[in-house]
Amino acid sequence: MHRGKGMKFVGDSRVPAERKPNIPKDYSEFPGKTEAFWPNFLLKEWLVGAVFLIGYLCLTVAHPSPLERVADPTDTGYIPLPDWYFLFLYQLLKYTYAAGPYTVIGAFIMPGLAFGALLLAPFLDRGPERRPAKRPVAVGMMLLGVAATIFLTWESVVSHDWEAAAEQGKIQVEAEIDTESDAYKVYQEQGCISCHGDTLAGGAAGPSLVDTGLKPEDIAKIAKEGQGNMPAGVFKGTDEELKALSEFISTTTAK
């Protein structure tokens, strides 16, 4: 039996007989449809990038980032608020089974499952179909995730007290405080620092005590009888301590 007898060879026009190196054609072979990368195309990219950069700089100058007062760890009434793209997670932690003793569920397990499913989506749904109607599971899960994010973000925006947030984050005037004085020690011992801050600049639970314009006797009266959100009987020190505290607050002025 001769070699090759009884065998048939089928050629494929898509496979070249001679292998050529993978060298792209010169752009001059496609007149009007392409251009040189350097300097033509790259220069256009730089120009577009420069326009966006200048626009971004103008926007930051016209609308600077809103700043709040310096963080005060003694202000227990301050309510932090994350940036807008984390508001849906912030709202999620307000619900019963995602907060308190279940914080781990709301902070780690539920977001972990959601983002884990997003990362595994290319491996879980490997079908060749591109039409949404042909991929109901993948499209349904994505729509559910988008709807949940929009709903939680909206709920967080409408339920947040923006006026109180603006007040608690407002930059207050600073004053030179003698933290070694006996009056300041009375201020600390009586718990005033928890509502008015360690610099007397105030917080969400109490107003600023800097430049009050009140006389010592007026301040002493408020400390005993209360005013606004401050109930009566908060001050429990001696008359000498009350006098020292009143004079201290009355004479505290901004720099």
Summary, kept brief:
InterPro entries: Cyt_b/b6_C (IPR005798), Cyt_b/b6_C_sf (IPR036150), Cyt_c-like_dom (IPR009056), Cyt_c-like_dom_sf (IPR036909), Cytb/b6-like_sf (IPR027387), Cytochrome_c550/c551-like (IPR051811), MenaQ_cyt_c_Rdtase_cyt_b/c-su (IPR012049). It is a multi-pass membrane protein. By secondary structure, the protein is mainly alpha-helical.
Question: What is the straight-line distance between the termini?
Answer: 110 Å
How many domains make up the coordinates?
3
Tell me about the largest β-sheet: none
Task: State the CATH class of the largest domain.
Answer: Mainly Alpha
CATH topology of the largest domain: Helix Hairpins
Provide the fold topology.
Elements: H1 37-62, H2 87-92, H3 103-124, H4 136-159, H5 162-168, H6 182-189, H7 193-196, H8 216-225, H9 239-250
Helix pairs in contact: 6-9, 8-9
State the main characteristics.
single chain; 255 residues; mainly alpha; Helix Hairpins; Cytochrome Bc1 Complex, Chain D, domain 2; 9 helices; 47% helix; 0% strand; elongated; Cyt_b/b6_C
Provide an overview of this structure.
- The mean pLDDT is 80.
- The chain folds into 3 domains: 28-62; 84-159, Helix Hairpins, CATH 1.10.287; 182-250, Cytochrome c-like domain (Cytochrome Bc1 Complex, Chain D, domain 2, Orthogonal Bundle), CATH 1.10.760.10.
- By secondary structure, it is mostly helical.
- 47% of the residues lie in helices and 0% in strands.
- The protein is built from 9 helices and no strands.
- Helix 6 packs across helix 9 and helix 8 (216-225) packs across helix 9.
- The chain crosses the membrane at residues 46-63, 102-124, 136-154.
